[in-house]
Write a structure and sequence with these properties.
Blueprint lengths: L1 H26 L16 E13 L4 E18 L5 E11 L12 E10 L3 E6 L2 E7 L7 E3 L10 E4 L4 E5 L2 E15 L3 E10 L3 E11 L15 E14 L1
Antiparallel strand pairs: 1-2, 1-13, 2-3, 3-4, 4-5, 5-6, 7-8, 8-10, 9-10, 10-11, 11-12, 12-13
Length: about 240
């Protein structure tokens, strides 16, 4: 009888230890929320270096733009569903040859907003809502980034999670990459991707959406662009004000 009681006690003890460990693991489970800003991040900002090129097919002109973009998390407000959302003020200052950016005043460009839920991270950009991230973040997981707009299905995918990333002298120990669209053929080349750093948010964006009017075998569309746009945005600095 003593052995039975001892065995029962050991089984109960093992069950309690397993339950405690399981609860502890759940408490510390990282679902990837740190990659997206939330209501508690009001006052934070990120400054990006932006290089963009527009290829105009009508007059065969090529326009280059270089500037800095500052995204400032200005305040929290309830969206149309009553969810806490962040007002994102977007400021720009244009590049001037021979002039430091610090000497150029910021000009308000537009206002976007974002919402982080238990399941995803949404951004409303120029009144169009995109599902930028989903939680938990898992390698090769896919979702429709345009599920809440009318632009057509784009299959977003995590293409790397918790990787190190360096840019402009900044080092980030945990970043993830989202591939938003990859579509290439003999006439068009489309590539959209974004990279997020934990506790920072978006740190880089790449957009290549160009094409040609004819086919030249053996020559990439990238080497014979007739129309389209490219845009490369990389973090320069960040902080809180």
């Amino acid at each position: 009888m003593k052995q039975v009681r001892t065995l029962s006690f050991l089984l109960l003890l093992a069950s309690a230890v397993w339950s405690s460990c399981n609860k502890d693991n759940n408490l510390h489970l990282d679902l990837g929320y740190g990659y997206a800003p939330s209501a508690g991040d009001v006052g934070r900002y990120v400054i990006y270096d932006v290089d963009s090129t527009i290829y105009n097919a009508f007059n065969r002109d090529t326009l280059h733009y270089k500037y800095q973009l500052k995204e400032y998390l200005q305040s929290v407000f309830p969206d149309n569903e009553g969810r806490p959302s962040l007002r994102i003020e977007r400021w720009v200052r244009n590049y001037r040859p021979g002039v430091s950016y610090d000497s150029v005043p910021w000009v308000l460009k537009n206002v976007w907003y974002s919402t982080r839920t238990l399941h995803d991270y949404e951004r409303v950009e120029d009144n169009i809502r995109f599902v930028k991230l989903i939680f938990p973040d898992q390698t090769q997981q896919t979702w429709n980034g345009n599920a809440q707009n009318t632009l057509g299905d784009w299959e977003y995918a995590y293409n790397g999670i918790d990787f190190k990333f360096n840019a402009n002298g900044l080092r980030f120990d945990s970043t993830l990459t989202v591939t938003e669209l990859v579509d290439t053929n003999l006439l068009n080349y489309q590539y959209y991707s974004e990279q997020y750093a934990k506790n920072i948010g978006l740190v880089s964006r790449q957009v290549i959406d160009v094409g040609d009017t004819g086919i030249v075998f053996g020559v990439s569309v990238l080497n014979r662009i007739n129309h389209g746009v490219t845009c490369f945005m990389t973090i320069n600095s960040y902080g809180k004000q």
